[in-house]
Amino acid sequence: MNIQEYFGRISYNKPHKDADLQTLTAIFQHHIHSIPFENLSMHCGEPIELDLQAIYNKIVRKKRGGWCMETNYLLFWALQELGFDICILGANSYEPAEKGYTAQINHVLLKVVVKGQPYIVDAGFAGAYQMWQPLMLISGKDQPQVPGIFRFMEDNGTWYLEKVKRKHYIPEHSKKHFPHTPELGNIRKLHKFTLEPRHIDDFQEVNAYLQVSPDNILRKKSICTLQTTSGVLALVGWTLTEMKYNYTEDMDLVNITTLTDEELEKTLKDKFSIELENKLVPVNVRGLPPNLVDKI
Question: What digits encode the pLDDT tens for the residues 186-201?
C-alpha cells in the first residue's frame, strides 16, 4: 500500500506537510468526490472483506467504492499515515421506518483531533446525508455545509447526529417515484454513537451478518452513490437520481431516470467510473419506506 497511489485515486496533489484542518478537509473532500458509497459486491456474488489490503486493492487499484466499513477504514489508514490523531468509532444508524436506532452498532465513523479540537469525519453515509466537511464535535451547534445543516446533540455520553432537510423540487413526471414524506419532519436523525475507541475487528461480525441478513436494506437494494461538485448521484436498482443542492433557496433539484439493464453498465462506467468484474444483479425492492431521498 502506498499513500501516493491513494492520492492518485482521489486526485489529490496538494501539499500535505502538516496534519492540520485544511489538509484534513481537502483529503476528505477529494475522497468523497472520488470514491463511491456502493454495495455492488453483494449483488455481484463477491464477499466484502474487512481487511485493509483487500479494501485497498478494491478501492484504490480496481477503482471501486465500498460501504462505510470499507471506505472509512481506507480513510482511517490514509489519515493515520499522514500523522493525524485519529480513532475509529462505532454508531447505531437511525431507521426512520422503525422510528428508532438499530440495536447493534452497524456503522463506522472516525474521530480526528486537530489542535485539541475533536472532529467527526465520515465518508460512508452516502446519498444526501453525506457530510462534505469534518464536523466539530460540539453539542447543539448548527454546522451549515453545502448538503445542508448538520447538528450534534449530546446526552449523558451519547452523541446524536441529525441534519436539517431542505425541500426537494422534483419535476412533474418524477413525483410518483419519490412521494413527499411530511411525516419525517424537517429534521432527519442519522445515527448515535459514543466516543469509545473501536478496532476494525469489532466490526467483522456485523460486516459478515449484513451481507446475508434478509432484513438488511442493503441486500434489498443495489446502491451506488457519489458526491458531485454540486450535489449527489445515486443509482438504486435501475433508478438513477441526480440531486443538485440548493437549486433555489432552501430547495434541492431532484431528477430521476429509470434505466434499462443495458444502460446500467454504461451508467456505472460513465458517471461513477466503475467497471465491474462480475455480473451485477440489480435489486430495488419496492415499498420500503422511506424513499431514497430520505433513506440512502
Answer: 889 999 999 999 999 9
C-alpha cell at 146: 453545502
CA distances from 133 to 82, 144, 293 (A): 18, 10, 20
pLDDT (tens digit per residue) in 149-163: 999 999 999 999 999
For the chain, residues with pLDDT lower than 70 are 172-185, 286-296
278 closest CA partner among 68, 62, 127: 62
How many C-beta atoms surround the C-beta of residue 117 within 10 A? 12
Hey, what amino acid is at 294? Answer: D
Which among 189, 198, 21, 39 has a CA at the least distance from the CA of 109?
198
| Cα 73 from Cα 81, distance rounded (Å) | 12
Rounded to two decimals, what is the model's pTM?
A: 0.91
Helix axes 68-81, 21-34, angle to 10 degrees: 140
Write down the pLDDT at residue 286.
Answer: 67
Cell numbers found for residue 207: 460486516
Establish how many alpha carbons lie within 13 A of residue 214's alpha carbon, considering only the half-sphere containing its beta carbon: 0
Q: Is 236 helix (H, G, I), strand (E, B) or coil?
A: strand
Buried b (16+ CB within 10 A) or exposed e, 170-197: beeeeeebbeeeeebeeebbbbbbbeee
Cβ atoms 90, 104 nearer than 8 A: no
Q: 287 forms bridges with which residues in the sheet?
A: none
Q: Which residues are catalytic?
A: 68, 107, 122
What SS3 state is found at 280? coil
Tell me which amino acid residue 138 is: I
The torsion angle over the Cα atoms of residues 256, 261, 264 and 266, rounded to 10 degrees, is: -120
